[in-house]
Design goal:
Layout: E1 2-6, H1 16-22, E2 26-29, H2 42-54, E3 58-63, H3 69-73, H4 78-94, E4 99-103, E5 114-118, E6 124-128, H5 130-140, H6 152-164, H7 167-178, H8 190-198, H9 205-226, E7 229-233, H10 251-260, E8 266-271, H11 272-275, H12 283-290, E9 294-299, E10 301-304, E11 310-313, H13 322-338, E12 346-349, H14 370-391
The structure holds D-mannose (DNO).
D-mannose binds at residues 63-64, 101-103, 109-110, 183-184, 233, 298, 350-351, 367.
């Protein structure tokens, strides 16, 4: 696999030199200054690419070109936005970047309830706590019908928790959940979120899946012509939130995406941390099943609890058997290369703990510390080299 690093552009606290020093050879980045739905101009893509190249790195993956809400809901100006999306794919392909990561999560992109969950070694991790989430949804946001989306046990605990939260805790919880995380799309306040949720009143799981399929039918042929591979990122977390449909969460979901438009340009971002938070997702068999269409890999580990809560653990210590997963990914990569692809799959250490000199630094993007990711990358490279070496 090719070792890459997510870079948030020239304003990132981590410089391109830092990325080289951490041991990556590729960069994963996006033009966050372009408003969602607008065309990415060749000039801007070119400028970013030149910057990366002049630092001795390669722009391996665009993460992400966000999909506009109108496309997801097939409302408003969705046809226009699809045309713009196609043009962005062409422009990205014309600069020679061959992989685009995107997602189809409704309203919120990835979300957590706690951005500084303290681990036994006193570093900090991101956590999703189901009871906190239910507390917010049912008692703070007071979404219509929210209670029916949770078990009696969770509701009872949420009912207790709301009494333990002071105003400041409640606001922090709200901000963590809905104000948007790095690279994520949606950033809302309470009334903005409620208003967005109402746009999904008439969209159930089946119709949302159809919307995704129709989007793929429009863009995949353009990606093929442009020499670009589209890699859909799974839902994070991979289950419904706020009663919204999520359609990129399981092996069946991924299969339906690949089957609706079979193409060397229609593929997935295999995110072990997202997919791994469902106990019923068998990651190794997913890699075996979808290997030929895994165009990008995020490696991250988790510890989950039976009620759906989880936190992000060290890259090698958690419920994902990371060594076996890396081995399976390398096996698939070799198989593809023997079949003539001759391409390494870009991999990035996904998230890292906040630790060492970065603890307490408010400028660190949650999940995107330098030290934590460097530790993750070093560990994952070690595993990867050991496996490649052993198998020749
Ligand atoms: C979180 C990330 C997400 C992801 C996008 C993909 O760390 O994995 O921001 O990149 O949702 O489109």
């Amino acid at each position: 696999m090719k070792e890459t690093w997510r870079w948030f552009g020239p304003d990132d606290t981590v410089s391109l030199d830092n990325i080289l020093q951490a041991g990556a050879s590729g960069v994963v980045t996006a033009l966050d200054h372009i408003e969602t739905g607008q065309i990415w101009p060749i000039k801007d893509i070119d400028e970013r690419n030149t910057l990366i190249k002049s630092a001795g790195l390669e722009w391996s993956v665009v993460e992400s070109v966000p999909v506009h809400h109108d496309i997801k809901t097939r409302s408003g100006s969705f046809q226009n936005y699809i045309e713009n999306y196609k043009q962005s794919i062409r422009n990205i392909g014309s600069v020679g970047i061959s992989t685009i990561c995107y997602n189809f999560m409704p309203i919120l992109d990835w979300t957590r309830t706690d951005l500084s969950f303290s681990l036994p070694n006193r570093s900090q991790a991101l956590r999703f706590d189901m009871i906190d989430f239910a507390t917010y949804d049912v008692f703070i946001l007071q979404r219509d019908g929210a209670a029916k989306d949770y078990s009696e046990e969770i509701l009872a605990k949420a009912g207790d928790r709301i009494h333990d939260l002071n105003d400041e805790d409640a606001l922090r919880l709200e901000k963590n959940i809905i104000a948007g995380l790095p690279g994520g799309e949606g950033s809302y306040d309470r009334s903005g979120l409620s208003q967005m949720l109402s746009t999904f009143d008439m969209i159930d799981r089946d119709s949302y899946q159809t919307n995704l399929h129709e989007f793929l039918e429009s863009i995949i042929p353009v990606a093929e012509e442009s020499g670009v591979r589209m890699a859909i990122h799974p839902d994070d977390p991979p289950f419904s939130l706020f009663g919204l449909p999520r359609v990129v969460s399981t092996a069946d979901d991924l299969k339906s995406i690949l089957d609706v438009f079979p193409s060397p340009s229609n593929g997935i971002t295999f995110c072990s941390g997202s997919l791994g938070t469902r106990a019923d997702n068998d990651l190794l068999s997913m890699v075996r099943e979808f290997g030929a269409n895994i165009f990008f890999v995020h490696l991250r580990n988790i510890i989950r609890q039976p009620n759906g809560s989880f936190h992000e653990s060290e890259h090698l210590n958690g419920m994902v058997d990371m060594v076996s997963l890396v081995k399976e990914l390398i096996t698939q990569e070799r198989k593809q290369n023997r079949a003539g692809k001759k391409q390494l799959i870009p991999m990035r250490p996904d998230h890292g703990h906040t630790m060492a000199s970065e603890l307490g630094n408010r400028n660190i993007r949650p999940g995107y510390s330098f030290c934590g990711r460097m530790k993750g990358l070093a560990e994952l490279r070690g595993v990867s080299r050991a496996i490649s070496g052993v198998d020749g």
